[in-house]
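= Tokenised fold =
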Amino acid sequence: MLSFVYDIADLYKVDITIPLAFQAVAEGLTNLERRVRHKCRDYFYSQKLLQRILPDIDKVLFIEPKAKESHFDSTTSPPSNLWDSAPGGVNWANDNDDNDDNDDNDDLPI
């Protein structure tokens, strides 16, 4: 299992890891291993290396890239707002509810 990981790491070793290691050595030998790891980590992050790895694996294994799947329907109509079809300003209360004198909750303490 790790052999595959090492094979993938070899894809980037000459272009990335070796130059960073020599750069760290040129800066001094104190905490060399730690500094090389940090330089690699920072470089991988800044260059977004993880986004390159899967496409590079596909190229090495001669796998054709898949078409990007859309997360949206194939309809050409634009999306609408959620409440476009709901009428606004309608009073849904019964007409006889306007009289507060007949309130069923008159006996409740306030």
User: Anything to note?
Assistant: The chain has three helices and no strands.
